[in-house]
Amino acid sequence: MYLQKLEIQGFKSFAKKTVFEFAEKSIHDGTAKSITAVVGPNGSGKSNVSDAIRWVLGEQSLKSIRCKHSEDVIFGGSEKKARQSFAEVAIYFNNEDKELPIEFPEVVITRRVFRDGETEYFINKKSVRLFDILMLLAKANFGQKSYSIIGQGMVDQIINISPFERKEFFDEATGVKQFQIKRDQAVGRLKRSRENLDQTNKIMIELEPRLRLLARQVKKLEQRKEIEIGLRQMQKNYYSYLWQNLTRDFSRERESFGVKDAVKADSEKQLFAVQNKLALLAKEESRKDVFNNLQKDFNKLSSDKNDLLRELAVIKGKMSLEYVKAGKQNLSWLENKKEEIGTRVSEIKESLENAENKLRQNRDYLSSNEDKFTELQKEILVLQNNLLVAQEDLMRLKTGERQSYGYESVKALLRQKSFINGILGTVAELAKTEKMYENALAVAAGNNRLMAIVVQNDETAVKCINFLKQNRLPPATFFPLNKIQGWAVREDSRTVLQETGAIGFAIDLLSFDQKYRKVYELIFGSTLVVDNLENAKRIGVGREKMVTLDGDLLEKTGVMKGGFRKNGGSAWISATEENRLIIQEEKIKEIAVLQNKIQTISRERELLGAEISEARVQSQVGETKIKGLTNDLESLKKEKSQLESEIAENRFEPGEKDKFFAELELRRRELDAKVESLDAELSKSRKQIDDFNMDEERKKNEVFSLQREMQEAQLRLNQFVTELNDVKINLARLETKRDDLEKEIKQELGEVNINEIKPEEVSNVDQLWFEISKQKHNLELIGGIDDDVIVEHKEVSERYEFLSVQVKDLEKAITDLDKIVNELDEVIAKQFNATFKKINQAFGTYFEKIFGGGKAKLEILQKDKPEVEVIPGAPDQQFISDEPKSDALDIGIDIMAAPPNKKVANIAMLSGGERTMTSLALICAIIDSNPAPFIVMDEVDAALDEANSEKLAEILQSLSFKSQFVVITHNRVIMHVADVLYGVAMGDDGVTKTLSLDMKEAQKSIE
Question: Is 30 in a helix, a strand, or coil?
């Protein structure tokens, strides 16, 4: 490595950019390094060159570069030249030998300063720190304060400074400066680490009591939380148990209320119907006038008959006298007997007609009631069949509640919409259709698919399936939109829409968001909806999958399914749980009403059966009576016939009758005919009255029956009202109890959905309540602890742990730094001692050479310890202190010099010239022992005479084989050995100018 170039701009008197170039080899000996001399008159600014080199290499002391303020290094201007705004110096090194530990063949160190005090450092135009430059130079064995740059006062300073200050000079001279920089850094870090360790330990001591207190509180809080978790679970079990029992009782009472209310309503309808019948009977016109008219007509006929009978009796009396006169008294008896039998026959006929009329009416009544009884039987049978169907439907609904086609799973998943992203809804709820198509589309889709859940993607489906498994819920069907593939209706299939009865394809009868189209294409495909089964058959079974409006299904394979379906039985909307529960409740009410109707009609049938039995007995009695009256009538008719024969035998001969008797006989016959006619009219009138009376009796019986039925209906209604009121009271009591329980649950458990809690089996609710009270008491004993204590404990604990780690790291760092300091001390001591011996030996040699004899040596001094004399060739001497931070102050270097013919023990006793020569001898010894890449000497020969200047010139030539020299001098002897001369002058503008002279080129010119 050697110095190639120096560029100065704006630095002190160098206002313009000035370049100094330095040769690598000497012109006198190609194996030696170059010597460059800078010459010029006093005040020309030649010493600013050494100041520039010192400054660019990192000098921070303004005194060392002959300045008072930082801006003094910047050209301040003159009468003819304006001042500069910044100063910049760049020094170029050839680093092909990699002596500088940096991967560049050329290294340029630049320093720039502005008038505001801002300073910049660069290595190869890259901004760096001052420390980076110092370390780089230290590793190359030179720097701004070492023997590499020897200023005007440095020669005397080496002699005049104290031994302990001289030690710093020898640090660079022996090459341990870089290790001392590292050691100082390590000692500084060690000090800071110990301070940090002490401060950290103090903080940890302060934190320990707080941490222990917080740990105890956290432990209590954990116990509290553990108790609270257990307590909350027990409370959930307890309140869920109470809530479910209460809900079950409430549901049972509400169901009972619905049933009883439905039965009560039905009973009210029955009572209202009976009351309407009674009202209709009451509104009928009074028939008293009809009866009076009938009775009046009957009385008039009876009166007319009685008048005729009285007249007939008079005539018969007269005829009896005539029979006596004629001597035919027996004929009078016979006629009287005949008349008596005739009267008896009339009475029997009247009784027979009356009996037959009653039998006829009884038979009509019996026939009517038997028909009514049969109708009641049929009605009861229909009601019993309806009851059986309703009970079967209810059983299916209850079975569906347990199985529910996975609806429990669907319901649970729909509640997870906000937690499982991507759940969109069920197939049934994501589409709508007209009511007339609901049944057909539901059959075509199938309940399982109606209850399927549409999800965004297959990942959502996996999450849902895992949720069902974790919660032990039944399987469900999923349609992930990113995986399913639908089958759209082909255009050639749409020709079927022209067929009679074809309504449309199922997917066209739905309204839905088009993003779900693949779902419904997958479910329905090309399913065709037709109006009825006949038209479906006409279109062609197997041509397309078809479904009728009634729900008959015709598969494309030819399979057909159909039968009776109750309206709404499989409607699109029946896929909801709410409708199923409503249907179930209505079905229970229907069953209760049917049972009440069956019970009422059965009682009516029993009463009617009793009436029919009585009517049958009356009919038998009437038939027997008619039979007896008929027999009596026949006997009397025979007897009358015999009497008529006898009368005929004893009648007057035609000649025996006189005119008077003939007239009497004629009159009697007329009267008999009139009486017979009146008897017929009386029989007819009597029949009308009997019919009227029997009809009134029937109506009367009907009124009594209706009144009895109304009374029974009223009693039943009153019973149902009483029971309904009891249920209302129970419901109100349960509702109040539920409200109180809900408030208690909210107070104890907060905002929770108690219906979603699945309680564990509770065997003893009292024991569970005892455990809850016990845990509450335990919580009271623990007391209230703010939850923020966990955060605080975590923060304090983390801080304590962090500090503990820091303590360990600091302790390790202190151990490592102690080790590093010790190792550096060993390296420094070893290198210092080795180099110091060489310098000491060379110092004696150069001292004798310069003085022409005499002796000189160096000694190492230690504070508070006996001084140890360093003897050349002696074993290495340890000088490292036990205290790392005081090592640099404990060691000093003393110079012992004795010129020829003088006995001098201390350098202070030498003359000024002798001290200068001694200092030069020491500098030359250092250069010889530990040569720097280049040496700058600023007028170090000013105090030498010509003879000593020649000695110095010889020494420089010999040392040029080890180092490159830049010498600022007035001495012609030194100029003579230089390879390049730079002349420095200052014009009237106050700016330094240079002129270079290459001695090799000059010599060629002379030759």
Answer: coil
The segment with the largest mean pLDDT, out of 86-95, 407-416, 487-496, 840-849, is: 86-95
Q: Is residue 193's pLDDT more than 90?
A: no
| Residue 128 DSSP class | E
| Residue matched to tokens 């739905």 | 510
- What CA–CA distance (Å, rounded) separates 200 from 899? 61
Of residues 459 and 902, the one with the higher pLDDT is 459
On whether both 594 and 711 belong to a single domain, the answer is yes
The answer, as to whether pTM is greater than 0.85, is no
671 has a pLDDT exceeding 50: yes
The answer to whether residues 569 and 595 belong to one domain is no
**Main-chain phi, psi angles of 122, to 5 degrees:** -140, 145
CATH number of the domain bearing residue 563:
3.30.70.1620
Do 494 and 458 fall into the same domain?
Answer: yes
Last residue of a domain, one of 506, 541, 575: 575
Kindly give the residue spans of alpha helices, DSSP state H, lying in 544-658.
Answer: 577-649
Same domain for 608 and 571: no
**For the chain, what percentages of helix, strand and coil (3-state, to nearest 5) are there?**
65, 10, 25
Q: Are residues 458 and 537 in the same domain?
A: yes
Supply 431's token pair.
Answer: 């589409």
Q: How many domains does the chain have?
A: 2
Statement to judge: residues 517 and 659 lie in one domain = no
The model's pLDDT over 591-627, given as tens digits with 9 standing for 90+, comes to: 777 777 787 778 777 877 877 787 778 778 877 877 8
**Domain extent for 468:** 430-575
Per the domain annotation, does 706 fall within a domain?
A: yes
Predicted local confidence at residue 323, as pLDDT: 61
Distances in whole angstroms, Cα of residue 239 to Cα of each of 108, 235, 248, 687: 86, 6, 14, 82
Q: How far apart are CA 665 and CA 657, in angstroms?
A: 10
Vertex 563 angle, CA 557 and 569, to 5°: 110
For residues 484 and 559, membership in a common domain is answered with: yes
Please indicate whether residue 346 or residue 444 has the higher confidence score (pLDDT): 444
Distance CA 584, CA 577 (A): 11
Q: What is the DSSP letter of 983?
A: E
Residue among 353, 270, 214, 427 at smallest CA distance from 688: 353
> 791 and 246 in contact (C-beta within 8 Å)?
no
Residue 244 lies in a domain: no
- Which of the listed residues 699, 714, 744 is the one where a domain comes to its end? 744
For 936, the token pair is: 């700058």
Within-domain flag for 823? no
Q: What is the pLDDT of residue 319?
A: 63
User: How far is CA 161 from each of CA 633, 733, 864, 892, rounded to the nearest angstrom?
Assistant: 186, 111, 20, 11
Share of the chain above pLDDT 90, in %: 9
Between 286 and 471, residue with greater pLDDT: 471
Co-location of 516 and 636 in the same domain: no
Q: Write the CA distances from 670 to 308, 326, 660, 674, 1001, integer angstroms.
A: 10, 23, 15, 6, 205
Whether 288 maps to a domain, the answer reads yes
Say whether pLDDT at 1004 is over 70. no
User: 128 - beta bridge partners?
Assistant: 121
Segment holding 478, helix H or strand E: strand 478-480
